[in-house]
Amino acid sequence: MPFLAVSSILLVAAAVSFATDRRRLRNGVFLVSGAVLGWLGLLVVSGNNSVPVLMTLALGFLLIVSVPILAVFLVLNGLIMLRREGRSLANLLSLLAGLAVVAVPLVLAALQTAVPALRALTSAAALLTGYVGFVFVSYLVYSLIYSHLPPRRHPEYVVVLGSGLAGSSVPPLLAARLDAAALLYRGKHGGSIRALIPSGGQGADELLAEGTAMARYLQEQGVPANRIIVEDRAATTMENLHFSRALMERPDAPVTVVTSSYHVFRAAMFTRRAGLRAHVTGARTAGYFIPSAFLREFVAILATYRWINLGFCAVLTAVPLAAMYLPLLPS
Is the pTM of this model over 0.70? Predict the structure, then answer.
């Protein structure tokens, strides 16, 4: 019963938080933790031979089988990223994650058995790994939920986030965002849209500002020039949003922000911080790019909430260490 009670509290908290603001990561944390505790409570009250127990065993078996499959997939995806996108730490994330999925549990199990003196540290490492995994699952689940939510109101402005030019040309990743924005303009609710705002400044390797090149592309797709407001100074996502907001006649007007599918939820978090009444939608992204991009987004979110995460990690590290060393203290 305690599991079910806590689960109910967490699920109610998730619903209230969601109703207040869809763009908070805590919505996913409450939802996933509430669902897990609710399932555990169901197992406790249903008995040993119940359907939930059998389903849990089946899910556990599938999880064990899926681990090596996931590891192979991530490694292969990482090799594809390196071949197509070049060598960089961001492009290595999928490969490193695939190796870690197998290596971390094996190393921790080996140390736990071979070096008893390190059991407190290996237990702490296991807890930290579990914590990161839980946060990632919460982020992934809620990102998928958010990306399928309809907007609460029809937009008056559509902001398109820049992602870099190839010289002066719009590359496929950015073109997909602009195509999605043009589709919104031509859609059944396009009449409510006052203007599209392509947003992006000029990088060191670009021949002109992203916003200018994006505006030209939109005009080629049939969007009238008088329905486009160019933002050509931004260098970060927050600047995209702040500078675009300054170009609107009403800063509190409902906005749809268009970005790539993998970037939707983090961009939504940015819109909340920028004070926009915004819904974020994602343009289609090449499949091979998504795993590494989601991992990169997750690392960025961990960094955004670094003090909260460091606090939880400190507590999780202290628990096994305290359990091991407190009995050694003189009474």
Answer: yes
